[in-house]
Design a protein that fits this description.
Distance between the termini of chain A: 65 Å
Radius of gyration of chain B: 26 Å
Largest sheet of chain B: none
Structural class of chain B: mainly alpha
Number of helices of chain B: 14
Number of domains of chain A: 2
CATH class of the largest domain in chain B: Mainly Alpha
Shape of chain B: globular
Largest sheet of chain A: 2 strands, antiparallel
Shape of chain A: globular
Radius of gyration of chain A: 26 Å
Strand order of the largest sheet of chain A: 1-2
Oligomer: heterodimer
Helix content of chain B: over 70%
CATH topology of the largest domain in chain A: MetI-like fold
Number of domains of chain B: 2
Number of strands of chain A: 2
Distance between the termini of chain B: 53 Å
CATH class of the largest domain in chain A: Mainly Alpha
Order of helices and strands of chain A: HEEHHHHHHHHHHHH
Strand content of chain B: under 5%
Strand content of chain A: under 5%
Number of helices of chain A: 13
CATH superfamily of the largest domain in chain B: MetI-like
CATH architecture of the largest domain in chain A: Orthogonal Bundle
Order of helices and strands of chain B: HHHHHHHHHHHHHH
Chain lengths: ~300, ~290
């Protein structure tokens, strides 16, 4: 009798348990399928293909670490890494600094704040294709950039994107223009989180707005700065659109980047294995850099 | 007493004086930033109205001497596939919004409200995958599409984009913030989980769904990298790809490029101006996530 009663109670509860389990998986199933195929599956395939030679026409051939060895002896790949490093070293500090200045200004009670915020943010929302095309036009020898320089007395007719010396700096400028305000928004959210009483205390101590910014706001925003530097670095490592549209890595490989090389090897020259290996190296690079930055910038805020 | 009064006036006066100087300084810097941010757009608008000869003038004019709509008409009619590119972009954005929101809200609801085995494992694995740059997966994703015959097909662009983590994360956070009483009342009435979700939960989630939709529209409308890998034929290009193809092959016709760029930029700029708060909040939430 007791056994029967226990069984009678148990059976529906287990049934209900499985039913709930099933319902939950039905809810996530459509999303999980896409994720398993196009992210999890793709990651496994990327690693697998990086150990093979594969040109789409014949079957992939396992070659061990050959692609990785090839990458580190490939003059173009090393050159691309140097370009990306230079690019990151200029763009990340610039966009961080400008974003910070923008946020600091918008945090003040100045007139037209809402207008400034939206105006500065517009470069971030237009597509990379549109902003790149616009800047290609502005950077022409007969374009507005040279005209503006002539206007202030610098008499030049530089072919900005066509000259080896100025192509990469031009793309740097383009991207700082297009990303600084994204950083501003992150900083703005962080600035507004700084507790008000700290400023009141500083006011009583006679600290001016500039000193308050450097001695209170900035130290308290270390987590936001870390985030901005990290996002900025990841973005810089992936520089692609501007290079693909404006310069195709040229002139003379002056704007060659790792991602452009992945495209060129994979989709122009059909070296799928080699392109995968460069992708894995790119991921490893981003992973290591973000670990180092976490160490260096030490994200805990000290209130 | 007198000293105290003096000290007080000093304390009141000094910050006001400083504030005024810093105000002028801040406003000046703000004006410079505004000019730099807006000038390229303003020059694009002006350039898109210039005649073919004026656009080549040196020094370039800021305001066109003759304003004409010719470039807009030509970019629409002379470049064979331009209307098709816009239609493709609208189709992709529409498909993406509907499918993405359906998929992400269902999954987000399961993560927020149902305790099921494997939930935390899946969630952690997913958060780890955010670190992987999209370009690393170009080759394998392309090869998968090649297997299922979706290369050079609009669905080849659309389907892989549904494998995304942000939307599920976003919706999970939102559903967690809804009061549990909503479902409890429904389950007493005997409604099934799916019916509760569709008829009670989703109508309460409109603000979150709208925010997600707006952000996703921007991503889909502006997308460049992945569509460039998937489609080749001119009739399957999206608007950004089509615009990018304007330069390169045949000598650049900047009149068309600038007028064409307006078709891509204006919808997004209007969207941001009207729905500013969603964009600003999303940047703030990415700060919290980090």
């Amino acid at each position: 009798m007791a056994v029967l009663a226990r069984g009678a109670v148990r059976r529906p509860s287990r049934f209900r348990y499985w039913r709930r389990w099933l319902t939950a998986y039905l809810f996530i199933a459509p999303w999980l399928i896409f994720l398993l195929v196009f992210i999890a599956g793709a990651i496994v395939l990327a690693v697998y293909f990086s150990f093979t030679d594969y040109d789409l026409l014949s079957d992939p051939v396992f070659v061990g670490l050959k692609n990785y060895q090839k990458a580190f002896q490939d003059e173009s790949f090393l050159h691309a890494i140097r370009n990306v490093a230079t690019y990151t070293a200029v763009v990340v500090p610039s966009q961080t600094f400008i974003g910070l200045v923008m946020a600091a200004i918008l945090d003040r009670k100045i007139p037209f704040r809402r207008f400034f915020r939206i105006a500065w943010y517009l470069p971030c929302v237009a597509s990379s294709v549109v902003t790149t095309l616009i800047f290609m036009w502005l950077f022409l020898p007969d374009g507005f950039i040279n005209a503006a320089l002539n206007f202030v007395g610098i008499d030049v007719r530089i072919n900005w994107l066509g000259d080896e010396a100025t192509a990469l700096p031009s793309i740097m400028f383009m991207n700082i223009w297009a990303t600084a305000a994204t950083m501003m928004l992150i900083f703005l959210a962080a600035i507004q989180d700084v507790p008000g009483p700290i400023y009141e205390a500083a006011n009583l101590d006679g600290a001016g707005p500039i000193r308050q910014f450097f001695q209170i706001t900035l130290p308290l925003m270390r987590p936001a700065i870390f985030l901005v530097v990290l996002l900025g670095t990841i973005g810089c490592f992936q520089l692609y659109d501007q290079v693909k549209i404006a310069t195709n890595g040229g002139p003379n490989e002056a704007t060659l980047t790792v991602t452009y090389l992945i495209w060129r090897q994979g989709f122009r020259d059909l070296n799928m294995g080699y392109a995968s290996a460069m992708g894995v190296i790119l991921f490893a690079g981003i992973f290591v850099i973000s670990l180092i930055q976490r160490r260096v910038l030490d994200v805990r805020p000290d209130y | 007493m007198a000293t105290l009064a003096r000290a007080q006036t000093v304390a009141v006066h000094r910050p006001r004086f400083r504030l005024r100087i810093s105000r002028v300084l801040f406003l000046t810097i703000a004006a410079i930033f505004t000019a730099v941010a807006l000038a390229p757009f303003i020059l694009t608008v002006s350039g898109s109205f210039k005649t073919k000869s004026e656009i080549l003038d040196w020094p370039p004019t800021i305001i066109p001497t003759v304003i004409q709509w010719q470039n807009y008409v030509e970019v629409w009619t002379n470049s064979h596939f331009f209307p098709q590119w816009i239609a493709n972009s609208i189709f992709l954005a529409g498909f993406h919004l509907i499918a993405y929101i359906a998929i992400c809200s269902a999954a987000g609801y399961a993560f927020a409200r149902m305790n099921f085995p494997g939930a935390s494992v899946i969630f952690i694995a997913i958060l780890g995958s955010i670190m992987i740059p999209g370009q690393v997966l170009w080759v394998p994703k392309f090869l998968i599409l090649n297997q299922i015959g979706l290369v050079d097909n609009l669905f080849g662009i659309a389907l892989p984009n549904l494998a995304d983590v942000f939307g599920v994360f976003f919706m999970t956070q939102f559903f967690k913030s809804l009061p549990k009483e909503l479902e409890e009342a429904a389950s007493i009435d005997g409604a099934s989980t799916f019916r509760t979700f569709r008829q009670i939960i989703l109508p309460n989630a409109y603000p979150a769904l709208a925010a997600l939709a707006i952000l996703q529209f921007q991503g889909s409308w502006n997308a460049f990298q992945w569509p460039l890998i998937v489609v080749r034929s001119p009739e399957h290009l999206t608007l950004p790809l089509g615009l990018a193809s304007f330069q390169g092959l045949f000598g650049v016709n900047w009149n068309w490029v600038l007028a064409g760029a307006m078709f891509n930029a204006v919808p997004i700029i209007l969207l941001v101006i009207f729905f500013q708060k969603y964009f600003i909040r999303s940047a703030a939430s990415s700060a919290i996530k980090g």
